[in-house]
Amino acid sequence: MSQLSAWDHPEPLALDTAPLPEYGSGSLADLLPTLAAGMGVPGLTATIGELTPADRVCVFLVDGLGWEQLRAHPDEAPFLNSLLGSSRGGTGRPLTAGYPATTATSLASVGTGLPPGAHGLPGYTVRNPATGELMNQLRWQPWTPPHPWQPYPTVFQLAHEAGVHAAQVSSPTFAQTPLTKVALSGGAFHGRLTGEERMDLAAAQLAAGDRSLVYTYYAELDGAGHRYGVASDTWRGQLMYVDRLAQRLAEQLPPRSALYVTADHGMVDIPFDEDHRIDFDTDWELRAGVALLGGEGRARHVYAVPGAQNDVLTVWREVLGEQFWVASRDEAIEAGWFGPHVDERVYARLGDVLAAAHDDVLITASEREPKESALVGNHGSMTPAEQLVPLLEVRS
């Protein structure tokens, strides 16, 4: 058997080796439809078969609380770790976030009950086909009319119309944001500053109806992971606080209630060196033929200049294919990265080429994205550390 010469390139990662999200049976998009269907909300189907209906349901979403990170820190989160066996209806298994594993995409999946290919928020930044500009879907910049961008009703809206008491309890900052409107609106929004206030009000909102669907949210764990990493003292301190919040809420559940603690994604720390951070802005090979670079470091949407799509795909696969799953738009759709179907209005939002990290590596953009390129903790791809999220359950 001849050895590889210096001019031979190892085979790129096969696309069928990417661990796809469990759309339709165990993803974040399946959670609220399952819970609301259990309350009798019409038009919704319970697709997470392990969950038992409850009259009053609260979902506490902790931004950045990945399954693997939680399991690795039993001392910092004793209460949450004690619930690991309850995850996903007592199976002890996690949910999957969906692709990409990023906040805007996941929150839209949670709130609409739809995978990214349908709700149409398929990344941190994506191209707006109407303008040709990159749109940041977390910050909603540049501003875009929300309803045409995401036209489907949220599960909260459907529940409210069906007579269920629906409420969101979160930071006042999020009360009027476009992302909240397209992903989480329906019923009443209650803004509270501190985590303790949110837990107390979430419990009160659960008790406010015979059938209640309540959502509450905490963001600072994710912020600590981005800035300092999931190995940092700051992140561990935030995890300790989250553990206390979850226990505080669990101890206040009114009768006939179920609390579910989940997350939008996990996170991985990426070292600051050239082996782990590939700078698009200084790499002429990767830049050739690229009009726009979207997504984020571990889940890139690459938009080619007209006519250069195949060349860009070839180069990206050749340069990055051992460390990233690199696919054309149609290949990613066919593989099911964004769910079983991609709506026509969403199709051109996806990159001509998509790159999802397999290894502990990033595609940074030091000039275009200086703040994002400086983050320690990152997420977005389909690896277990990013995809797997808990679904911890407490019942009263």
Q: How many β-strand stretches? A: 18
Q: Let me know the largest β-sheet.
A: 6 strands, mixed
- Spatial strand arrangement across the major sheet: 6-5-7-1-8-18
Helical fraction equals 25-40%
Task: State Rg.
Answer: 21 Å
What sort of overall outline do the alpha carbons produce when their principal axes are compared? Answer: globular
- Low-pLDDT parts are 1-7
C-alpha end-to-end distance: 65 Å
Oligomer: single chain
Helix-strand category: alpha/beta
Quick structural summary:
By secondary structure, the protein is α/β, with parallel strands linked by helices. The chain is 32% helix and 19% strand.
What does it look like?
The protein is an alpha/beta fold and 396 residues long. The protein is 32% helix and 19% strand. It contains 18 helices and 18 strands. The strands form six sheets. The protein has a six-stranded mixed sheet with strand order 6-5-7-1-8-18, sandwiched between helices. Strands 11-12-14-13 form a four-stranded antiparallel sheet. A two-stranded antiparallel sheet has the order 2-17. α9 (178-183) links the parallel β5 (165-170) and β6. The radius of gyration is 21 Å and the shape is globular.
